Every structure is written in C-alpha cells, then in structure tokens.
Amino acid sequence: MDFSKTKTELSKLIGDKKVIQKNDGTMDEALFNSYGTDRTKVYPPNYQVLVFPETTEDVAAVVSYAYQNEIAIVPSGGRTGYAGGAVAKNGEIVISLSKMNQVVDFDPFLGTLHVQAGMITKNLHKEAEERGFYFPVDFAATGSSHIGGNIATNAGGVRVVHYGLIRDWVLGLTVVNGKGEVYRFNGEILKNNTGYDLKHLFIGSEGTLGIITEAVVKLTKPPKDIRVIFLAVPEYKNILEIFRETHNFDLPLLAFEFLTDYCLDKVKEHLGVPDPFQTPSKYYVLMEFEVGGETDEEKLYSILESITEKELITDGSIAQNSRQNETFWKYREGISESLSLAYTVHKNDISLPLRNMEAFLDEMTTLLTKKYQGFNIALFGHIGDGNLHLNIVKPKDLTDAEFFTQCKQVDPEMFTLIQKFKGSISAEHGIGLLKKDYLNFSRSQSEIETMRAIKLAFDPKGILNPGKVL
C-alpha cells in the first residue's frame, strides 16, 4: 500500500493538519504508536497513517474513502482496554476520536447531555455536575477513557450493582457505518416505538459495526451523601454473606467491591498508601452507600454492627470525610495500574451468577494452583454484580512470549469451568483480539452466525476493526 498517497488523499478530504503519517516529523514515534494499541502487551502496533477527525462528517469522509479503496480502519479512543480491541497490527488507518471532545447540547427538561464521542469520561462527569446532574457510570480509567469507547464496549464499572451498565444510560447515538453512511439514532425523546432500536447493536460492538461519533446520555440526580466502608474479611465465603446482609437494611448500596491481600500489597507499593488496618487479612471489601439523613446513618452503623456480631469480618472502618473516602477507593481502583505498570499481566474479566461464585472459586483455585505453580494471582472485582477480574502475573524468569503461550494453554480449561457454572468469559472488557477464539464458550454457533450476518449488513467489506470479536 502507498501510505504517502493515502495521507495525501485523506488530507484533501478533511485537511492536512488532521492526517499524520508515521515518521513524517509531525509526531514522536512512540506517541504515534500509542494510538494504535491499548493496555494489552500481546500485540505490538504496526500501522502508518493516523487521522484526527473533528466532526462526524470528517469520520464519514475517511470511512467512505477507506470503503472505496478497501483499506481497514481501527477506531482509537482512550486506549484503556484490556482485550486488544484498539490494536492496529496490520497496517490499518487509525482514527483517533480525541479531537472530538465537545458538548453538542444539553436538555435540562429531559436531563440529557449530547457530547462528541472523544470526550474523556471524567470530563463528562464534570459537565453533568456543573449542570446540577450526575452521570453514574464510573471506573478506574475515567480519567483517560473516552465516552465513545465506553459505549463501544458497554462499560460497567464500580456502580453497576446500583445504576447498571452504560447501555442503560445511552438515549441516542450518531454512528458512521462501514460504508461511510451516517446513522442518527434519536436521542431527543424517551418514547420512539418505530421498529428495531438499532443503536443497541452498536453498544458493545467494539467498533466492528460502526464508529460512534456522538452520544446522548441520560443523567440523574447526584447521590444525597456517600459513605464508604472498608472491611477486612478472613474468608471468601464471608464476602457473599456480607453482600446478603446489606439487603436486610433499606439503604441504597452503590458499590460492593473486593480484593485480595496480594492486590492491596501492590497498591501500597505503587501509590504509597498506608495499611488500612493494623492486622492484615486475606480479603478486603469496599462498600459504598447513599445516605440521606440521620436514619440512614443509623442503618449504616447497624450494618457494620451486624456483620461484626456474626464474625464475618476481623476489622472495619467507615470513612469519616471525603479524603478518607478517596483513600479507601484507592485501595480498589489503584489495582489495575499498580499491576500493569510494574508487571506483565494476563487478564481475565469474567462474570458468574453470585449463587455459583463460591463453588466456581473453589474449582478455579484448584485449577490455577495446578496449572500456574509459582505464579502470583491477583483477584479482585465488582462482586456486587458477579464480575471477577482474574490477573495472572508473569514470573520474572519467563519471557513475555513464554508467559502468554502458557496462559493461552490454560485459558480453555478456565473457560470450560466458567461455562459449567453458567458464566461469561468477558464481563466488561469485551472480546477484542484476545478472546475471539473462545467466543463459543459464551455464545452458541447460531448466535455467532447471526453476529456475522449483522457485521456484514453494517460493514459489507469488513474494514471496521477487522479481526476483532469475530
């Protein structure tokens, strides 16, 4: 492929400053490469042309050109994913949405915010707060992830147990399909019963059906007040008992997270935060509640009193101010960064019915102990919605290639176990490149064939994020 020709022709379509070719002197090579990958370390980026559109029309022009010339495209957001969904490894054009970061409209009556897809998630939170509203989808990567990427992967995060997935907060989308055609799925009204609601096909499609360029998201009222409890828990089975106990009190549970002692140690090393308790524990639980007044405060202390009397915990603390709230959350949200920056990690993001969780973990522990002898396992997750993050940490004496080969040999056995307990091989990170060979563990053959047919309808030449998911 003549990449210089591609750059020249795209520059004519959308403007010279919006198109960069590798090593043309415009951008440092390391920064250039970073737009063609995500947080996975399995596949190195390999591409030559990077595009920075500023409007939906820019994106449509680039995709139309790519369709006519049969050139593959990889959409690039905040690149915070862990499934290889944003990796450009075969000379694709990379379309970065980072310049598309503006508020398009705000509706105070409906309570919606219309934004471009490249807006950083934390900035969307701020935009909502400045208008007296609240956008509840939140997770550790909100400071760098894009709302479009969140929608493309149907992001979950730490408050799914109360607010649900991002799918539940998307009212409208603007999408460019694989031919460069623009869809505008109405986001100005709540009721629109006019046939298939096609926007839901694009939520969670990982850029394989179309490129999301704008979104209308629903907003809600901010929580009245937030209280965070951090607990030391001796046994995993106690965690589920604590979760059940929270249902005995009429107090809104916003988040229910857990982590192991290994995870806590890594966060302390990375962030320099202090020990939460004098005596270490095998497991830790973080709970967040919405508190509306004195009666709710009493319920909060009643929960802590109840789980203490039932000997479900060895220690516990209620954050006394916003600063301590932040510290407690660092113990949980600092895990992924503390692992990914210091180690090579093989990540599995899985979900199971909570009633099957304990039995699954017993069998999984036996499997991992046998297959990963001498390896460290970092286990944490959103236990309130049945989502586990299972991280295998590479030993120092193995090369990356040896490590990933060994992990790939064990994954099918783990996925078979997940299938046995009626779970999913991907809870929120998506399929991308890393899990596409194992999609059959969570989807039937007829489902996969239907997905292929949908892909063909929206992307007839297969140029959008090729090789991902399917």
TrEMBL record:
Keywords: FAD, Flavoprotein, Oxidoreductase. GO terms for biological process: respiratory electron transport chain. Its cofactor is FAD. Signal peptide: none annotated. It comes from Leptospira perdikensis. Belongs to the FAD-binding oxidoreductase/transferase type 4 family. This is FAD-binding oxidoreductase. Pfam families: FAD-oxidase_C, FAD_binding_4. GO terms for molecular function: FAD binding; oxidoreductase activity. Residues 42-222 form the FAD-binding PCMH-type domain.
